[in-house]
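Today's session is about reading a structure prediction critically. Students often jump straight to the picture, but the first step is always the sequence itself: look for stretches that repeat, for charged clusters, for runs of hydrophobic residues. Only then move on to the predicted structure, which in these notes is written as discrete structure tokens rather than atom positions. Here is the chain we will use throughout the hour.
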Amino acid sequence: MSNVAVTAVERVLDIFEAFDKVQKPLSLTDLAEMTGIPKSSCHAIVGTLTARGYLYSLTRPRALYPTRRFFDLARSIHEKDPFVERVMPMLERLRDASRETVILGKRQGDAVIYLQVVESPHSIRYSAKPGEFKPLHSSAIGKALLGSLKEAELRAQMSGRALPAITGATLTDQEALIADILESRRRGYFLTRGENVPDVWAVSAFLSVHSETLAVAVAGPRHRMEANVTEHAQLLLATCGFIARQWTKA
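Below is the predicted structure for this chain, in token form.
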């Protein structure tokens, strides 16, 4: 794909993300300023989106806003997801049992992408959105996915890799991170203690489904998680085992 095509796609996404950020109608000038898109280019993109039914215009104030078309299209696509929708009931049961936020993710390049997030019912909770990217070395899901590798492959992938400090608790020493991952694998589950988000602990495990390696995590504030890590780990491992068995039967 050419750089021009990539830029065009990025600009369309920037426009929708601008609406999500302010959650109100925006004028063409507002959109151009918020996204950094030249006004002439922004006008052309907006014109196409309006003609295709993804935006509608208001006369007072003179502004634009997305229609439901993008939402309905995304929902229709998401409902046919080959994996996420099938495991949602199990993720929800895990959330209900742990009463903490449950996350499903997989590796994408050198990062973790969240595929689904089922948030805790508590008012103070870990919050995230599907589609967010997280570092491999500091997130619970990232650690689990790294832990799915054989030791030689893990060491090869870690060799020379930068491990930036996301928080003050992030493991930035390569040998310390490898040792933590190998010990976690022997234990059966992986743990982060404020390494990706301050004061948030998470327990995670990986599973393989149709040659895809995924990971599930239970995450919440330290004051609730610390005393319940073992219990949450048992619930998590039972859930991952159940999901894997369901796919084996399918």
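Discussion point for the tutorial: Strands lie at 55-58, 63-66, 101-108, 111-118, 133-135, 190-193, 200-209, 212-221.
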